[in-house]
Amino acid sequence: MKPAVELYDTTLRDGAQGEGINFSAQDKLRIAEKIDAFGIHYIEGGWPGSNPKDMEFFKQAAKRKWKNAKISAFSMTRRKGMAVENDELMHNILAAKTPVVCIVGKTWLLHVTEVLRAKPDENLAMIGDTIRYLKDHGKIVLYDAEHSFDGFADEPEYALATWQAAEKAGADCIVLCDTNGGRLPREIAATTKLAISKLNCRVGIHTHDDCGFGVANAIAGIEAGATQVQGTINGIGERTGNCNLVSVIPTLQLKMGLQCLPPKSMPKLKELSEYVNEVANIRHDPRAPWVGSSAFAHKGGMHVHAIERVSRSYEHVTPESVGNHRRVLVSDMSGRTNILLKAAELGFKLTPDAPETREITARVKELESQGHEYEAAEASLALLIRGIMDHNPELLFTVDAYHVSMRRDTKESVCEATVKVRVGNETAHTVAEGDGPVNALDGALRRALIKFFPKLKVIELTDYKVRIINGATGTSAKTRVLITSTDGKREWGTVGVSENIIEASLQALVDSMEYALLKK
């Protein structure tokens, strides 16, 4: 079935131009395979001849069978004063052996005369010659009309002439580009609507996010009649980025009813977003629309109470429709409903009127007012709930004493920690060195506990965060320490708060080990 809107992904070319983004050829192939499996229609692999990585990508891509996507190569129109058949750019793009090519050309007369320093008629010839040459070689040709909206605002007749030159030469789709990312949705809609009324070929939209309108402008173009949208996964790209396909796709499919992907693909959206970030070595944005961990997180007591009864009262779609899930947060803003739902999520059974429910709610509010934070420390919350529900159960272990010191050996500072741990009637007294006081303390605690609990050997710390809570009190300020731990299969967070950063760290470390031993 022909999609209502075609999806053109340029993560591997336009996205790779973003600051801090550096894909290897193998990275590009891995991402392309993931995007193809998701169901996107076109994947732009890069600019043939611009660098060895792109040429290697096209070489390897030509050997693969792609399930859903057509691979596209990107280049520009022939250079001025040169016959198209003699231009090395054309030779490189044909050597890529892709079924689709995307050619960028000038729309804005300012660029033609001041940047390209060509005559207006010569630019039109460059557009036409290039597209005809590639069509004669059997390619599907998409024409990216650079600076379409800025060019049309300045010289509408010339901008239109460039689009018509591309159409006359046989372009399969003319893509209107808001290259500077500076136009408003109403301008995008008006210009796109006019272009469609003057052209007989398909029209696409390519937007950037410099004003924060990348997605809004793409949607405006589609509402005006564009049938192809170009963008990148997670909106990565030059300057502030490109139109974010991860936001555009569910908007088209779930909000506008425009079928662009098989329904079975939509629940894999979050997975795709996280995969590309992982390969790009970018931390996933928790506040990303649709796919962020906070996208369906509820903290306010009134909100949580409402979604328990009618989920759509505070959720615009079901989280599972895009592969996400609902999260209930617990804080000093929590009501009993937050506690009930979070306790159930952690495996505890509470009832609204139970005295334990009231006690847990009050205790959480009290500790949060002192600086604790349980949103990212669910393991500490689980231990708190267990302690109240089981009426102060006996701990699996107790830290009776600890000592941390620092000395300087030759040119390096060395931290040393000793820990005395009691398990039942037995004790262990251990010492460890580390790069810093917390590292040494972690080593000593772990060494003491492993004697009694060998399963703790696999526990590792994956993250350690420190936050000064009341900085106005200077060096006596309270410190909050958040620790993330893993056993290789799952992760959990713990928290500690104290005026002493070592004490706060120890609280979080002890909770981490206690939780690892209790969790089934």
Structure description:
With 520 residues, the protein is α/β, with parallel strands linked by helices. The chain has 3 domains: 6-261, Alpha-Beta Barrel (TIM Barrel); 297-384, no CATH class; 398-518, Alpha-isopropylmalate synthase LeuA, regulatory domain (Double Stranded RNA Binding Domain). The protein is built from 17 helices and 16 strands. It has helices spanning 25-38, 52-61, 88-95, 109-115, 120-136, 148-154, 156-169, 185-198, 214-223, 245-255, 269-280, 301-309, 336-346, 355-369, 378-389, 437-450, 501-518; strands spanning 6-9, 42-46, 70-76, 100-106, 140-146, 173-178, 202-207, 228-231, 297-298, 327-328, 398-409, 412-423, 426-434, 460-468, 479-486, 491-498. The strands form 4 sheets. It has an 8-stranded parallel barrel with strand order 1-2-3-4-5-6-7-8, surrounded by 9 helices. It has a 3-stranded antiparallel β-sheet with strand order 11-12-13, covered by helices on one side. β7 (202-207), α9 (214-223) and β8 (228-231) form a beta-alpha-beta unit. The mean pLDDT is 90.
